[in-house]
Amino acid sequence: MRRLESGGRIDRSSPVRFSFDGVVLSGFAGDTLASALLANGVHIVCPSPILGRPRGVMTAGVEEPAAFVEVSAPSFDAIAPAPTVELVDGLIARGLPGVGRLPGPDAQTAPCLPRYAHVETLVIGGGRSGLRAALEAVARGDRVLLADERTWLGGVSSHEGAPRADAPTEPDGLIDDVADAPDTTLLTRTTALGIYDAGYVVLYERSRPVERLWHVRAGRVVLASGAHERPIAFADDDRPGVMLAGAVRLYLERFAVVPGSRAVLFATNDPAYATAWELLRAGAHVEAIVDVRESSPAQADARREGVKVLSGASVTGTDGDPRVSAVRVRSAGGEPRSIEADLLAVSGGWNPVTQLARTIGCGSRYDEERACFVPDGSGPDWLEIVGRAAGEVPASAACWSVPADDRSRHFVDFQRDQTVADIEAAVGGGLRSVEHVKRATYIGTAVDQGRTSGVVTAEVVNGLLGGDPGAQGPSNPRPPYTPVPFSVLAGRHQGDLLDPIRRTPIHRWHEEHGAVWEDVGQWKRARYYPGDGEDMNAAVARECLAVRTAVGILDASTLGKIEVVGPDAGAFLDRMYTNTMSTLKVGRIRYGLMLGLDGMVFDDGVAMRLAEDRFLVTTTSGGAAAVLDRFEEWLQTEWPQLRVYCTSVTEQWATIGIAGPRAREVIAAVGTDIDLSADAFGFMRFRDGAVDGVPARIARVSFSGELSYEINVDGRYAQSLWEHVIEAGTPLGLEPYGTEAMHVLRAEKGFIIVGQDTDGTVTPGDLGMDRIVSGEGDFVGKRSLSRPDTVRNDRKQLVGLLAVDRAQVLPEGAQLVLEDTGSIPMPMAGHVTSSYRSPILERTFALAVLEHGRELRGASVFAPLPEGTIAATVTDPVFYDPEGARRDG
Fold first, then answer.
1. What is the DSSP string of 323-343?
2. How do 350-352 and 227-229 pair as beta strands?
3. For residue 768, which of 615, 629, 601 has the smallest C-alpha distance?
4. Other CB atoms within 10 A of residue 217 CB
5. pLDDT tens, position by position, 561-599
6. Nearest Cα residue to 339 out of 279, 264, 283
């Protein structure tokens, strides 16, 4: 392997230094890492991932199945095909056996920004066909965006027509015409990751210093993605020095790199012979051309030039340690021979690159003359496939795998180390579908997504099943077309920008008073307020006792709030909740559960009836968006006849919770025109009026079991009201409390939190809430409640747990067993969902879900842990004030 003294399209005036596997090497601007490695004589890039076989460069593009690297500078790339890595000064890479690793904390990734574009025509592919399609669109007056994954435009097939061309033909004129066209944007280093409905295409531009993820809406998409040359499976076809013929030609023409000095060409078609002419022009020796066909014009041309052609022959294997040193050949008559060589260039035909089209629903058919699958004309009317992607590839004989008694080293998928023998084993085991063979062998599931292996695998399967070529096509591809770093998909959304941060209107007060934060969904919530020298346990205990003995104040503004308005609002909510909401009177509140289609608890909250045609429903803090999405989905897809409109008002209303025996006194001290007496203002009712001179809606609901009021006001007044409540309540013993104390208080009463005490496998019956499941009418998930699985008597049910050692805390998530046998495994009967220290109970306690839970009250269970087993007694889940005597003050 060597670099020619002249030629190519590299910039010899700009030398580039890089490091590979710890060795400093040099190349030129315009090189890829693969071309630079070949120019430096590096023939082994990495070991194969499973068998550890040495692998070298095989192709010149994204179809590379063997030579993979990790790039650590100038930015981190966990795994990349060497031919796709652009050589830049200071690049550091190492060979990688097909398995990437997560970057360390100091890994550098290029920043990525989103870009949005609307054009009449998007052209994917910058070869001749793509350039011509772009010019046609320009002539129509279209705005045009053209994208190509390589660093240059013009494509890679320089020899179109006679294989004995005297010199490559470059489409420079076409490139200039497109570049000069009005309203035209050209993007190189840009890959179309996926084509989606209505002309929506996602592009990944690998630019520096900032990468871009393009979201393109196009009236018309032209797919001019070309074709990939196909290998042939034979013994030891993965040995370094075995390359695709078109890749050899590209390294010669564009990079002036000669991949070998003594070459053998294994071909099924005439255009492959162009590689022989380029090798000869570069001073290499072509020892022989092995052609599976009996005759062709190219064979006669080669013989006239003095090149040995073996017609009707095939390559049966290679020798070498580790690089190819000889090629084993079987003649048309069956005689074996060995040809000394350090390069074997293989061309088994071409596969049109239609993966992007197939993911949007385009079909394919087998073309016998070209021995490949070509588009069948189906697909959306806004998508056009042109050029080689449309099937305009040269004719080729059909040769997928060279026959042999043992095909255990006939490699098909180089990144999965899978062979023809593995395919034979899968079919021999009874598999008949290519898709099933894919899943049994993992062929086509690696980084290259079967670009070189997919068609070969399909045809090997067809042959083993006795079918004709094309009986089954290759397995289905999936977007993205090539791997894309998560950092690119994330874009700006990293670190503090990973997720939008939502703050309540009272956030500044919490911050100024030393709140420790908890992330709840996207919200920042005060978890607790530590005093001087207090840890979390001490602070939470103080806050809990304040609520139980005096009064506490909680910022509950994060609760999801949705207005449901319209003549059919009641009927709609009856279908969304397990209990009936349409019978609720104006001014009243009702708690309800929502289920998934599977009958499992999805969310919970309360509904307030504001008027005959208007409800305000609350959701969990993290579930508001999901509930609104659910409401809209069912209204738009299942019940469009219902006259209902849903509006999120979570941010409009701030909610201040005041709970504890002295809650009435605090609100009265602040000032209100609402009668707060128990007789006038009963539990699960709400009243509109004024608090501290501000319009407010007060709801009598309790998540602590104590006398409790939730004051809802316009968010603009929230902090002022909060401060006035603090001022008025401090003489009465008022303390602000956070989410951790809220959790303790609600768990003492056995109140659940969806997502903590439920996990998507819990029904209302499991929670002991059958009483709020309506027996009449229908609601989402109702039918699933009668499935055999949901009515079996051994389901896990909500229970309480009291550790035998009053000071021991059962870890949340701890698995529970009925017998501590001391041997692993032990049958698991349930797990702990919530666990806390309770200052009012003067002990620890927990909630859990346990098989036959309600039948086991009074029994012992055990939590086997690495540090020892904790024993506990099963109890009712309500630990404090089971009679509810404290609710009304």
1. S--EEEEE-TTS-EEEEE-SE
2. antiparallel
3. 601
4. 13
5. 999 999 999 999 999 999 999 999 999 999 999 999 999
6. 264
Tokens 């070509």 locate to 374
What is the three-state SS of 19-42? EECCEEEEEEECCEHHHHHHHCCC
828: tokens are 């698991």
Label residue 841 exposed, middle or buried (CB < 10 Å: 0-12, 13-18, 19+): middle
What distance in Å separates the CA atoms of residue 504 and residue 718, rounded to the nearest whole number?
9
Which three-class secondary structure state does DSSP give residue 619? Answer: strand
pLDDT tens readout for residues 625-657: 999 999 999 999 999 999 999 999 999 999 999
* pLDDT value at 165 more than 60: no
**Per-residue pLDDT tens over the stretch 287-330:** 999 999 999 999 999 999 999 999 999 999 999 999 999 999 99
DSSP character string of 651-666: TTEEEEEEESTTHHHH
Cα 241 from Cα 57, distance rounded (Å): 8
Count the neighbouring beta carbons within 10 Å of the beta carbon of residue 775.
7
Is the pLDDT at 170 greater than 80? The verdict is no
H helix or E strand, kind and range, residue 92: strand 91-95
* Cis status of the peptide bond prior to 736, with omega within 30 of 0: no
Which is it for strands 200-205 and 734-736: parallel, antiparallel or unpaired? unpaired
Longest dimension (CA), the chain: 111
Q: How far apart are CA 763 and CA 598, in angstroms?
A: 9
Query: Can you tell me the distance from the alpha carbon of 526 to that of 540, in angstroms, rounded to the nearest whole number?
Result: 12
Give the other-Cβ count within 10 Å of 126's Cβ. Answer: 29
CA–CA distance, 270 with 695 (Å, rounded to integer): 85
How many Å apart are CA 74 and CA 33, to the nearest integer? Answer: 13
Token reading at 862: 């055990």
Q: Which residues contact 482 (CB under 8 A, 6 or more apart)?
A: 62, 84, 149, 191, 193, 204, 447
In 68-193, which ranges are continuous DSSP H helix? 128-139, 172-180
Mean pLDDT of the region 198-227: 96
Supply φ then ψ for residue 51, to 5 degrees: -95, -10
Alpha-carbon gap, residue 229 to 63, rounded angstroms: 9
Distance (Å, whole) CA 385 – CA 670: 72
Place of tokens 């289905």: 476
- Is 802:872 a contact under the CB 8 Å cutoff? yes
SS3 at position 675: coil
- Tell me which residue of 323, 307, 306, 324 sits closest to 315, measured CA to CA: 324
849: amino acid identity, one letter: V
Task: Give the separation between CA 525 and CA 528, rounded to whole angstroms.
Answer: 9
Please check the confidence at residue 157 and state whether its pLDDT lies above 70.
Answer: no
- Which three-class secondary structure state does DSSP give residue 426? helix
Q: Which residues pair with 265 in a beta bridge?
A: 289, 345
Residue 861, Cα to own-chain centre: how many angstroms? 40
Asked if residue 424 lies in contact with residue 434, where contact means CB atoms within 8 angstroms, the answer is no
Q: Where are the alpha helices (DSSP H) in 214-264?
A: 245-255
H or E element: which one contains 648? strand 645-648
Q: Give the separation between CA 130 and CA 152, rounded to whole angstroms.
A: 13
Torsion (CA) 20, 23, 26, 30 in degrees, nearest 10: 0
Q: Which residues contact 194 (CB under 8 A, 6 or more apart)?
A: 201, 202, 356, 359, 479, 480, 481
**69 neighbors 285 (Cβ within 8 angstroms):** no
Q: How many CA atoms lie within 13 A of 24 on its CB side?
A: 5
How far is residue 713 from each of residues 97, 558, 653, 676, 717, measured CA to CA in Å?
61, 13, 6, 17, 7
Q: Which residue has the tokens 């004989």?
A: 397
- The SS3 call for residue 119 is strand
